[in-house]
Design a protein that fits this description.
The protein has 405 residues and is an alpha+beta fold. It has three domains: 237 residues, FAD/NAD(P)-binding domain, CATH 3.50.50.60; 83 residues, Translation factors (Elongation Factor Tu (Ef-tu), domain 3, Beta Barrel); 59 residues. The strands form six sheets. Strands 12-15-14-13-16-17 form a six-stranded antiparallel β-barrel. Strands 7-2-1-10-19 form a five-stranded parallel beta sheet, sandwiched between helices. 46% of the residues are buried. The protein binds flavin-adenine dinucleotide (FAD). Flavin-adenine dinucleotide binds next to helix 1, helix 2, helix 6 and helix 12.
């Protein structure tokens, strides 16, 4: 029987603790907060998008995305679903593959994990932040007790959502063991814009196509909801491209968004439609016509950017003006200045360099017996349950390796 310390009582730490305890090892789990799984509780707006049936390496980013492959292989969605069923947690899977607890309540997830961890023999210490780990070349010692541990798992999460207790302590601990930290940056996060109108459009929501340009080169394209806010822009489409935007901003690149307000209508069709409307509604002002097609608050700003006087009558609109307006409606450009920060980010890119971790076991390549799990690593997934799944899978992988020590 081995002694194992798990630092961090989030998704990856709880999963790891349970699986190690099931192999009859002594497991101490240390959580700095007054309760475990605070981020799980906040996930999916309290509904917890717990995993996804379609998991693939390409759903993950980081300097070394292939790193996630062994974890996804060792612990698939089906494996996770079976694990949940053993804990008494049934899942509901949506058509698009996103999985939730059947109750659609995140607290069912933390409750199931905590009860099952205790049932399997895990000792949980809350309000116990781990600040120092000593290693004598064979065994580990934490500053909070006099135990000697055969293995330590750093499962401290990322910097995203500090209001839930997120911090960089895992990075600090990893550095003590000469691990390199890829600089962290917010991901799945809203973006700040430099424009004359976003704050005036605050609250306006629209289904749109969004293209992300880095230094004027197309980097990513998504379709979904956008929402203008006082600081810039939010919405699922923005969160979906935010990873690339945030990474580029961190490296001081020029980041631009192109918004297609008529993503389901080809350019030529929109041009023809506008021409017909200007002709049929010849006595309407163009701002009135446009307000029939787009959220009314947007119309004056679109016309300003197309350099068209809002009071121009439909009959007065020239072909080149209609063309210009079509171009703006299909590709409305905004400069992105920064992200909305770690406080509002769901996850964080960067973290412990995965080139220094064995992807098959999650063990440090520097220190035998030291393991990493979850978001503390330089792995970030797409929105849709991918981040929690990596936490489960990497915690499981580390536990399996520790179980055979
Ligand atoms: C608002 C929000 C919504 C989200 N929604 C989803 C979603 O629907 N689906 C999805 O897949 N992902 C979602 N995520 C991301 C997901 O929650 C994380 O990717 C996942 O929780 C990471 O698990 P983890 O175990 O690596 O870290 P965490 O769950 O963050 O756990 C780390 C734990 O370690 C503790 N800790 C930190 N330092 C120390 C220390 N020194 N000593 C002791 N304890 C320490 C922390 O308090 C924390 O409890 C969301 C995140 C947020 C913030």
């Amino acid at each position: 029987m081995k002694n194992v310390a798990i630092v961090g009582g989030g998704a990856s730490g709880l999963m790891c603790a349970i699986v190690v305890a099931q192999a009859a090892h002594t497991v101490h789990l240390f959580e700095q907060n007054e309760q475990v799984g605070k981020k799980i509780l906040a996930s999916g707006n309290g509904r917890c998008n717990i995993s996804n049936t379609h998991l693939h390496v390409t759903d993950y980013f980081g300097e070394n995305p292939a790193f996630v492959a062994p974890a996804l292989e060792a612990f698939s969605f089906t494996d996770f679903e079976a694990f949940c069923a053993k804990m008494g947690l049934l899942l509901h899977t949506k058509e698009d593959g996103r999985a939730y607890p059947r109750s659609f309540e995140a607290k069912a997830v933390t409750s199931a994990l905590l009860h099952y961890a205790r049932h399997c023999g895990v000792t949980v210490y809350t309000q116990t932040p781990i600040k120092q780990i000593e290693y004598d070349g064979e065994l580990f010692r934490l500053h909070v007790n006099s135990h000697r541990y055969h293995a330590v798992v750093i499962a401290t999460g990322s910097l995203a959502a500090p209001q839930l207790g997120a911090n960089d302590s895992g990075h600090t601990l990893a550095r003590q063991f000469h691990h390199t930290i890829v600089p962290p940056y917010p991901s799945l996060v809203q973006l700040h814009l430099k424009s004359r109108c976003h704050h005036k459009l605050s609250g306006v929501k629209q289904h749109a196509g969004v293209t992300l340009y880095i230094d004027n080169k197309k980097r990513a394209e998504v379709t979904g909801d956008i929402l203008f806010t006082k600081y810039g822009i939010s919405g699922f489409a923005i969160l979906d491209i935010s990873h690339h935007a945030s990474f580029a901003l961190m490296h001081h690149h020029n980041v631009t968004l192109g918004i297609d307000l008529f993503e389901s209508m080809p350019r030529q069709q929109l041009l023809a439609t506008l021409k017909t409307l200007c002709s049929n509604l010849s006595r309407y002002t163009i701002v009135t016509i446009l307000a029939l097609l787009t959220p009314s608050k947007m119309a004056p700003f679109l016309l300003h950017d197309a350099a068209i006087d809002a009071q121009t009558l439909g009959a007065e609109m020239q072909s080149k003006q209609i063309k210009k307006l079509t171009n703006i409606l299909k590709d409305w450009r905004f400069n992105v200045t920064q992200t909305h920060g770690f406080k509002h980010a769901e996850v964080s890119g960067g973290g412990v360099d995965t080139l220094q971790i064995n992807p098959e076991t999650m063990e440090s390549l520097h220190v035998k017996g030291l393991y990493f799990a979850g978001e503390v690593c330089d792995v970030v997934g797409r929105r849709g349950g991918y981040n929690l799944h990596f936490a489960w899978a990497s915690g499981y992988l580390a536990a399996k390796a520790i179980s055979t020590l």
